[in-house]
Amino acid sequence: MGYIIEMLNITKDFPGIRANDNVTLQVEERSIHALLGENGAGKSTLMSILFGLYKAEQGSIRIRGKEVSIEDPNVATSLGIGMVHQHFKLVQNFTVTENIVLGSEPRKGILLDTRSAEKKVESISKLYGLAVDPRAKIEDISVGMQQRVEILKMLYRDAEILIFDEPTAVLTPQEIHELMQIMRRLVEEGKTIVLITHKLKEIKAVADRCTVLRRGRCVGTVPVASTTEEQMAEMMVGREVNFHVEKGAAAPKDVLLRIRDLDVKNSKGLLGVKKLSLEVRAGEILGLCGIDGNGQTELIQAITGLAKAESGHIFLREKEITNLPIRERLDLGLGHIPEDRHRHGLVLDFNLDENLVLHNYMQRPFASWGVLNKKAIKDNAARLIEEFDVRSGQGAATPARSMSGGNQQKAIVAREIDRSPDVFIVAQPTRGLDVGAIEYIHKRIVAERDKGKAILLASLELDEIMDVSDRIAVIHEGEIVGIVQAAQTDENELGLMMSGSLRKTPKGGQA
Amino acid sequence: MTKRREKILLPLLAVLLGFILGSLIVIATGRSPVAMFAAMVKGFSGLDIINDVPWNTRYIGEFVINAMPIILTGLAFAFASRTGLFSIGAEGQLMVGSLAATAVALLVQAPRFIHLPLVLMASILAGALWGAVPGFLKARFNVHEVTVSIMMNYIALHLNNFVILNIFGSQDKVKTAFFPETALLKSPFLQSITRGSRLNWGFIPVILALVVFSFIINKTTFGYSLRAVGYNKDASRYAGMKVNRNIVLSMMIAGAFAGLAGSVITVGTFNFGRAMSAAEGYGFDGIAVALVGGNEASGILFAGMLFGMLKSAQPLMQSQGIPREIAGIIQASIVLFVAMRYGIKMLLERFKKQQAVTADGDRA
Amino acid sequence: MSIKILFEMFPIALMFASPIIIAALGGLFSERSGVVNIALEGIMMVGAFSAATVTVLLEESTVLAPWLGLAAGLVAGIVFSLLHAVASVNMRADQTISGTALNILAGGLTVYLCQIIFRQQRTRAFSNGIQKVTVPLLEKIPVLGRMFFIENYPTFFLAIFLVFFTWILVYKTPFGLRLRSCGEHPQAAASMGINVAWMRYFGVMASGALAGLAGGIMVLTADIQYTLVTIHGTGFIALASLVFGKWNPFGVLGAGLFFGFSTALSFYAKDITFLASLPGEFFYALPYVLTIVALVVFAGKSVGPKAAGQIYDSGRR
User: Fold this and answer.
1) Which of A26, A363, B62, B294 has an alpha carbon within 20 to 30 A of A178's alpha carbon?
2) Is the pLDDT of residue B278 over 70?
């Protein structure tokens, strides 16, 4: 079997950073080739070069042995290269068919020939077992279905090489399983797949070979069957990785956060959280795990006040906070690391020092009589930068936008921990961060627990939940379907609960 | 370029380009750009650089008169802007401000030290209320403030005309009776030192407004929360700020500045209320002023003077045979160039890079 | 209100409605491609000025002068709208600011040119604008004939034609699909090989052509010359019709007719007993008030193109 894709000695510079440094990638025809690396390792850049979105400074690309110059995505398409982007590029109020044919539409005279387009989409969908309704509108179908529409877009254009960019990030375990089957089916039908990911299990499950990138450089290419997950992890990070979080046993005390029969509506106006009850005690970390979109966001937003509770009660210590304004909840000792740090966590156009007083800018010493004290704000920033090792180019005066994701997150963690809240809601604290930052943030969260805080940790990363939590609550369709001790469960059991096929309540039946 | 320098240099470049474009149009239509610039110099300094006529301070007075209202509408646009709102509503807020000033001037009888402040307060309040409408609709229903404030401008125009014509009973279908002296900003002293210009005490509220603007935005916790909302609503809500309240307040304060502009014109420049066939463009002038001034008080002061100078040069240009509308053309091109500043910056950087490449080539 | 008054109102209402509908269709093209165009007002002014000027200058030599005037309005509208296209597509300008600049510019530029060409603040008056027509045969249709086909401006039929034309082009052709995709999700469009910049240029230029034409129609049917107040906010009413009509050609038709009638009503109000007590200003202000009401009613249901107003940066994917 020959190489269908050869990217040889690719170098790509962005202002201030070399994203790809002399990277070589060779992919065998009719295989699944994984591209592994941490965030920022240069995987997406490399694939964007292959897809014609960026142009490399150095290096050459050969497709089926012939040297090519891929100027734009149209050239890539004509070479039979297609890409399923991590963030789908679908027009929400168009139909499935309209999205697929866009740009190369069948015509009847000057008009769009919708009927034959739908027929063709249907037949391709059948061939690969995709089961997509060609007449459905994108806004009405599930995320997994939307991904299949993306796949159909490429197949409609006769793509032979399919690039998947982190395809499982948004899928349920069930959908992930189906996607793996679709991928195998595609290879059977003669396609070649490049899979961009940082999840080792998926590589083990489906890929034939794996190329590892680290900080823009190629670390090596290995056959997946004869390489262990630990070996690949070490190649990815550059040192031996201890995924286990060092922590002692929890010493839970009083209940600090108590939720009773909570109903919360989601953005579609339906109940995203239903009659949910939960308790978190001082000195423990309660992990909240579930498939994305099962009510985690609604629950957290209702606790923190970003969303309204339809009914039910939320107590902080003995004080009911269900309908209090956000500011009062904060003053009562609630802390919140939001899941989307750019949307909620930071004002990116503010400097770091202004961001570090986002909650208490109006309190002494940062202000008196409604007038800001800029010196106090600056001093506060200097102290936190020092204590939490936040790296920023111009110290307190660094625009938040110019900081790296890891340091932005550290700044948020610093701000929230420094407020010393009794109840700490932590959502997706390490999404998109590198291993070093992840380890640091986990350590700080455990340290807060040991100080006697009650911590609710929501994460989509099962490993993070299992490593950091003391107890784990599983949420499914807005309900808690089980609470287990972290030390006494495994991935299998959690997976069954997350998909709703297993219910487990601790002895006594009380959550 | 550092951010600070960029913020000053790019608008200056846009101003330069606007004047160049204006000159080209003047040349293309067979008129003299020298006469145009001479009119501008005379328009703000009273000095005639072409003819040998004595210095006339009246022009300085008229120049200040022209700059005052557009500084205020500039502050109005900028204040909303800092909270992330795009208010085109200064025009209408100014008109209801003017209407309120007219009403208080005509209906209230009081000594000047009570009457005049009442007139000013009424215009501020009216502008604020008019501004509250798009603010409230934005906060409550998430309706876009641009469309609402455009519509509010026309409603204000017709409301103004209705009240002036039907309630205050104008004789000539254009203006009300004259206001009593106690309601006016008029100053015989200021008139006498500017050879009978219409210069009046209006500049004092204008300066106060500039100071208030700068203080609120830069120094107060309220200003901090307004800016935070302007940059990122979601993060502001997360941090416990009252986003909707801030949006309404910001639009109201913006409206207050524009409303004040209404009284500065109506009881300062004029001394009667007027019905109008169309808006006079002070609101749009304000957008130009705020954009060129970078939404900062000091910048707005300078930009207001720049466009005030253009306005006061208009009759002088007309008398030189250059149609007065050239001022509007220059102003519009400056706004267009300021709007394109990021594109211009990109072009400049690309140009610099190419220069560097060719320079390297020369050396090699 | 007698039936007679209603029939009398029709030609007037349709006269006012035609430019509103056509300019709003222009706005539809622009916003469907993803460019907000609040410069409709300014483009209409430029179109009206050009149409009036060409009509005045040519009416000595040809009876077709008003039609040539309309063509001039259309072309001038395209050229003028190019400024908006360059600013918002190439130069990453905020589309609202750029549109505002065009509105200011139009006022200055047209009167400036009037001064250069006619040595006064307005164009010279033309002796004949567009003439009303009575359509043979169709005029005999009961009721409908009296409403639409007797003594009516042919420009109304043009407006109706353009509504259907727009509907087919935007909703039934591959080109329309691509145009709409640029207004909904330009990154998606680009990933399918569609040239977003080009499509947006088309959208803005189409809005220039239609708004320029609308301005020409307005001055040649409802006025005797071009002045600074010839358009007096009609461009903004067109914008309101676009919102009112939910960015759909037939919705725009309905909204345009509605605003046309409400304008006509202000002329006839004193003949209609129950409206006679209301001042004229009430009717002038009515479209604007209704638009705000419509905005509040539609609030939350995002009916407009999602990406309208967004700068499309091909570097950020």
Assistant:
1) A26
2) yes
CATH number, residue C181: 1.10.3470
Identify the CA nearest to C112 among candidates A70, B317, A300: B317
Task: Give Cβ neighbours of residue A132 (< 8 Å, ≥ 6 apart).
Answer: A96, A121, A125, A145, A148, A149, A152
Token pair belonging to C102: 């065009």
Residues B110 and B332: beta-carbon distance below 8 Å:
no
Q: How many CB pairs under 8 A join B and C?
A: 144
Report residue A129's pLDDT band, with 50, 70 and 90 as the boundaries. confident
β-strands A423-427, A111-112 pairing:
unpaired
Domain range enclosing C127: 3-133+150-298
E strand intervals along A140-246: 161-165, 192-197, 209-214, 217-223
Homologous superfamily, domain A3-237: P-loop containing nucleotide triphosphate hydrolases (3.40.50.300)
Question: What is d(CA B130, CA B97) in angstroms, rounded to the nearest whole number?
Answer: 9
User: B interface mutation test: which of A328, A344, A354 has the most B CBs within 10 A?
Assistant: A344
- DSSP annotation of A256 reads E
Superfamily classification of domain A255-333+421-498: P-loop containing nucleotide triphosphate hydrolases (3.40.50.300)
The verdict on residue C304 lying in a domain is no
Euclidean distance between CA atoms A419 and A410, whole angstroms: 14
Domains of chain A, residue spans: 3-237, 255-333+421-498
Tell me, yes or no, if B281 comes closer than 8 A to chain C by beta carbon.
yes
Task: Indicate the number of domains in chain C.
Answer: 1
Q: In what order do the strands lie in the sheet with A217-223?
A: A81-84, A161-165, A192-197, A32-36, A209-214, A217-223
Backbone angles phi, psi at C5, to 5 degrees: -60, -40
Token pair recorded at residue A225: 């069957």
Rg of chain C over Cα atoms, rounded to whole angstroms, equals 20
Helix (H) or strand (E) holding B113: helix B112-141
Q: Does domain B60-308 have CATH number 2.40.30?
A: no
| Identity of the amino acid at B323 | P
Domain boundaries defined on chain B: 60-308
What is the SS3 assignment for C85? helix
- Which residues of C fall within a CB distance of 8 Å from A94? 177, 180-181, 184
pLDDT at position B359: 58
* Residue that has been written with the tokens 């909703």 in this structure: C171
Nearest residue to A292 via CA among A176, A426, A180, A172: A172
The answer, yes or no, to whether the previous bond of A365 is cis (omega within 30 of 0) is yes
pLDDT bin (cut points 50, 70, 90) of residue A292 is confident
C249-288 residues touching B, CB cutoff 8 A = 279, 281-282, 284-285, 288
Minimal Cβ distance to B231: which of A305, A325, A349: A349
Cα separations in angstroms, B326 against B146, C116, C220: 27, 11, 26
**Is the model's pLDDT at C119 over the cut of 60?**
yes
Closest among B147, B128, B148, B146 to B87, alpha carbons compared: B146
Two structure tokens written together for A254? 């009083």
Asked if A454 and A424 touch (Cβ cutoff 8 Å), the reply is yes
Q: Looking at this predicted complex, what is its ipTM?
A: 0.89
Token pair, residue C208, equals 């220039």
Dist CA B306 CA B322 (whole Å): 19
